[in-house]
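Below is a filled-in request sheet from our internal design queue. Each sheet records the structural input a requester submitted and the sequence that came back. We keep these sheets so that new team members can see what a complete request looks like end to end.

REQUESTER: design group, bay 2
PRIORITY: normal
MODE: inverse folding
CHAIN LENGTH: 402
BACKBONE (tokenized):
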């Protein structure tokens, strides 16, 4: 009889694990708490050869994953290129990748509206209990429910998200909404600009309709990191309705004045192409930046993967690739009969890799939080930022990268 796994969380990590385990003949079920299809999370995702390989290995999909840009540049305030670095890369969108990973599952093994609230272990079985009174018993339970996971405490009760001291303002604009002159830069490059104590990055990603990678149909994705101490964050997360949000705020609750302030700051600090991009974004989003480290990813038959185990800040651009690596390496370790013993080896290697990425992401984002009293903030050289942001693991010079 085949082994069975219950996967909690139907996003990137959950779907990579489900695809990889299915390939090994495991019987899997995926349980996602959100009751409607997860399709509208419009972020851009930088990809690497290793991610494309893992997508192919786990889904059989060999298609190009997104749009590409060969060169990374920085711009001065007039919009002229002030630094450049050749690093050909493919950029996809969360929705596109999700659709590729989701394709292999139907409603008989991908369940929406299943919010897992408890986990029970009895002998060689583990049971997930959902708030809709459903229960699911299996040989293994995989917690893949993101940075805010409460279930993580079944594996590592000490790990908790840490606020980085800055937020990312984000948005996407369709290419056909931008002027030709701005498009010449925005559609061809990965762009990084460093206002003091800040960073903004922009690059083209897939569109949403037919022919999503064709120039003209694509979107330009941007993220602007700005310091926000805990008091500023509280103010940013105070909603239109008067509700105080804590970790993030629904777009429709973001107060108009805050967006006006952002647009004004864009006009003061950014090159013209990025001013246009930011101002043409109908609804910018606020993403407070958190990171998370765990010491453990395994407790008998319960495992954490993806952001639920380690969340690096976005500068390493590695969240999805790391989730894919967690899942594919897990499926390799699950091949043998005595897999429970071998999983401790898997855990040690993934914990080492997760800590490495979180630490690297902290280093890359060190100049984006408010400087401490008496601390002089030193901005990095923009060429180093172009060289270090969102690069493949094989291009990072360190023994600890795997
Ligand atoms: C601004 C920004 C830019 C980024 N850029 C990149 C990039 O360029 N490249 C890259 O690789 N990564 C990037 N990332 C990171 C990447 O988006 C994440 O690492 C990745 O989405 C994590 O996937 P996950 O499945 O582990 O978690 P999530 O995507 O958070 O999914 C968790 C899922 O679990 C569900 N869930 C939660 N609780 C329960 C429960 N109790 N029961 C059932 N389901 C539950 C949630 O609804 C959700 O669908 C970026 C992140 C940010 C914030």
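RETURNED SEQUENCE:
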């Amino acid at each position: 009889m085949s082994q069975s796994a219950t996967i909690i969380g139907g996003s990137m990590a959950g779907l990579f694990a489900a695809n990889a385990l299915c390939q090994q003949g495991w019987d899997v079920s995926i349980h996602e708490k959100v009751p409607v299809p997860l399709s509208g999370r419009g972020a851009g995702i930088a990809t690497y050869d290793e991610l494309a390989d893992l997508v192919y290995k786990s889904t059989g999909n060999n298609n190009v994953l997104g749009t590409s840009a060969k060169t990374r540049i920085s711009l001065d305030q007039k919009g002229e290129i002030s630094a450049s670095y050749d690093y050909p890369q493919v950029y996809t969108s969360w929705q596109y990748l999700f659709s590729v990973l989701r394709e292999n599952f139907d409603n008989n093994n991908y369940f929406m509206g299943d919010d897992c609230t408890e986990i029970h272990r009895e002998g060689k079985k583990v049971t997930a209990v959902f708030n809709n009174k459903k229960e699911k018993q299996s040989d293994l339970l995989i917690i893949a429910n993101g940075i805010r996971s409460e279930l993580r405490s079944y594996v590592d009760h000490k790990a908790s998200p840490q606020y980085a001291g800055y937020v990312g303002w984000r948005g996407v604009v369709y290419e056909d909404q931008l002027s030709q002159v701005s498009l010449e830069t925005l559609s061809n490059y990965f762009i990084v600009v460093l206002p003091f104590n800040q960073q903004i990055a922009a690059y083209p990603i897939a569109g949403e309709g037919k022919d999503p990678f064709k120039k003209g149909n694509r979107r330009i994705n941007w993220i602007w990191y700005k310091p926000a101490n805990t008091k500023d964050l509280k103010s940013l997360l105070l909603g239109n309705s008067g509700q105080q949000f804590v970790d993030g705020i629904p777009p429709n609750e973001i107060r108009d004045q805050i967006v006006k302030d952002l647009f004004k700051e864009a006009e003061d600090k950014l090159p013209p192409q990025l001013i246009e991009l930011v101002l043409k974004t109908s609804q910018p989003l606020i993403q407070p930046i958190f990171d998370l480290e765990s010491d453990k990813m395994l407790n008998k038959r319960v495992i954490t993967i993806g952001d639920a185990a380690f969340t690096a800040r976005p500068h390493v651009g590695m969240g999805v690739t790391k989730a894919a690596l967690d899942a594919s390496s897990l499926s390799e370790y699950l091949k043998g009969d005595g897999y429970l013993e071998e999983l401790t080896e898997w855990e040690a290697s993934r914990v080492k890799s997760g800590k490495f990425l979180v630490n690297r992401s902290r280093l890359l984002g060190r100049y984006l939080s408010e400087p401490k009293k008496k601390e002089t903030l030193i901005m990095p050289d923009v060429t180093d930022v172009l060289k270090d942001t969102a690069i493949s693991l094989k291009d990072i010079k360190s023994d600890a990268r795997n």
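SHEET NOTES:
- The two ends are 33 Å apart (CA to CA).
- The pocket of flavin-adenine dinucleotide is lined by residues 8-14, 31-34, 38, 43, 45-46, 114-116, 144-146, 168, 170, 223, 287, 306-308, 314, 317-321, 323, 390 (CB under 6 Å).
FILED BY: M.R.
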